[in-house]
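Board notes (copied after class):
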Amino acid sequence: MRKKVLLLVDDTPANLRLADAMLGDTYDIRTATSGKMALEMMKIVVPDLVLLDVMMPGMNGYEVCNALKADPATRDTPVIFLTGQTEVTEEQRGFEAGAVDYIQKPFSEAIIRARIETHLTLKDAREQLALQLAILKADLETARNVQLSILPQEIPRMDGLEIAARYVPMKALGGDFYDFIVVDEKRIGVLIADVSGHGTSAALIASMLKVSLAEQTDYAAEPSKILSRLNQTLFGKFRHHHVTAAYVFLDMEKKILKYAGAAHPALLFREAAGGNVREVLENGLMLSSFREASYHQVELPVAAGDWLLLLTDGVSEAKNPSEEYFGAGALQRIFKEHHATSADQFTAQLLDEFYRWTAAPGGSELEDDVTFLALHVHG
């Protein structure tokens, strides 16, 4: 095990010899007789700790310490001042310069050893923590890439139907999820889901949803069965999370939609005839928490010009600085004002309005993941 390197900086050689005699058996001692010499030495080898005299000609200890803290290579190196000064103001000045400790001369071997060991232990702990954080950051980035990969890489294109989506995770890893079951060129199923919580566990549950949904193609036209089967797949797999979801099936040949929800925010439906925006709510219990949960579906006609909006509660329950909810009222207003656009333009405008409401430009400081899908029926 290598010895820790200590740099002793003092313009009095006798003091250097004394400190070396006290500490040389435990540490690898380097010495410098001036501040300038110390800075030059640290360009070659950065010590684990610096014992620094305050009163030195040319460049005093405070100036040396300031220079060390200004250099990224040495700013984390702990500095202990050794001085004969006893004024409180001098001690305060030392801490303001970035020192971790201040030992008055003459000092005892027991005291200086104890102080050195304490600060070396703290330095090791900080370095270990920084390493763990770097590893965690790398793992989270990998997990984030996996999370993004489970979302559809492109939106399905269908005759008579335009779809656009927006997904903004609260953190590096979110719990929102959406996906599609494309039956043929006229029929499609759309799932949106929200896993409670955030982070790696929520992202893993979202990946389970993707796998399970891919196995439900035979039931694509039956939202109630889709949710029931997803519930059976997820039940008992985890304890501290639950999942809300909504599934809509669109048959563009028959001009109908079928919809079912699992404790999820309502589907917003803007009818071209009259321009009214209404909530479609056909909710059962949340997924994963109740083995025998059952779900019911509603069937509605659709016509050219109709709009559908699926969203997670990160949208409807977002607050502005006055603690007011974004809510259904704001969504309905935006629907009425911006419906005469493409689905992609509509979702972009909705996201801009959302950012303005929450005063969180670009999604910064969001309190929850935000996901919504807009579906526009054409003639």
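Comment from the instructor: The first helix runs from residue 13 to 23. The radius of gyration is 32 Å.
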